Amino acid sequence: MFAFFRSNWAFEYNVMIALAFMLAFLIALILHEVAHAWTAYKCGDPSAKIAGRITLNPIKHLDLLGTLCILFAPIGWAKPVPVNPFNYRNFRKGNFYVSIAGVTVNFILAIVFSLCFFFIDKYVGWAAATENLGLFLLYNLFFFAMIINICLMLFNLLPIYPLDGYNMLVSFTKPTNRYMQFMRQYSMPVFLIVICILMFTGVMGTIVYGIRDGLLWFWGLIF
Predict the structure, then answer these.
(1) Which DSSP string corresponds to 3-47?
(2) Which residue out of 28, 33, 54, 149 is catalytically annotated?
């Protein structure tokens, strides 16, 4: 987050950037987890509801270390939603629906916030936004929310345990599948290697900004 600060800006503008970034991350993370919790409940598993996770209260969702990482590193996470797949009325369908719920919400949020950013950028613009703290906050909130939701959607789609992409595959594979067994045994080193590749090669940024540009181009065609 601190990478977005500018020494030549007034203190209050850097505060607005920090606030916008944190709000965007909270919106993306909390709604992602609520989607998992609500879908699990609808599929027959009350574990998340009993744990009080079908709520917008951030205290119920935030993980201390994951929140600190949001401040100091380009990554963050919330508490995993407690689920018991054996409670699903249909294991395969329930597992798939719960797994895809979070990334679906992030995808919808990315679309919504890209539209919001398109309008504020088109009708207000960066120059005018920097002259008003409220507009500056909204401009950065819409931008960060668009980018963060795209990032979370793509990241969680990776087929690495325990990410949503892996759990989606569980719905279509047998327990004896070699890839699934390998991931369960070696997920941590694979996870760290993938994180390093995405962070230091620029691959993730290229894909994320490509999707961002595609969304803004689409809104430009319509409006």
Answers:
(1) GG--TTS-HHHHHHHHHHHHHHHHHHHHHHHHHHHHHHHHTT--H
(2) 33
